Amino acid sequence: MPATVDAAAETPLAKTRRARRIVRLLGDIHPDARIALHFDNALELLVATVLSA
User: Fold this and answer.
1) What span, in angstroms and rounded, lies between the C-alpha atoms of 11 and 5?
2) Which of 14, 17, 38, 45 is the least buried, fewest Cβ under 10 Å from its Cβ?
3) From what superkingdom does this record's organism come (predicted)?
4) In angstroms, rounded to a whole number, what is the distance separating the alpha carbons of residues 36 and 39?
């Protein structure tokens, strides 16, 4: 796979496959990764994300 991908030329199926591969590789590299933000709903996640930036 090339280092850069022309997103305009990539099919939706190819994007999905590439995204799944990336997620799988990141899971292999960082198996114990956890989110550091604490939230109970979508609004709290949004606020926590903005405040952490």
Assistant:
1) 11
2) 38
3) Bacteria
4) 10
Distance CA 41, CA 37 (A): 12
User: Residue-wise pLDDT tens for the chain (53 aa)?
Assistant: 556 667 678 999 999 999 999 999 999 999 999 988 999 999 999 999 999 98
Alpha-helical (H) ranges within the chain are 12-29, 42-52
The whole-angstrom separation of Cα 38 and Cα 1 is 37
- Both tokens assigned to 41: 């709903």
Domain boundaries, the chain: 12-52
User: 40 is written with which tokens?
Assistant: 């109970």
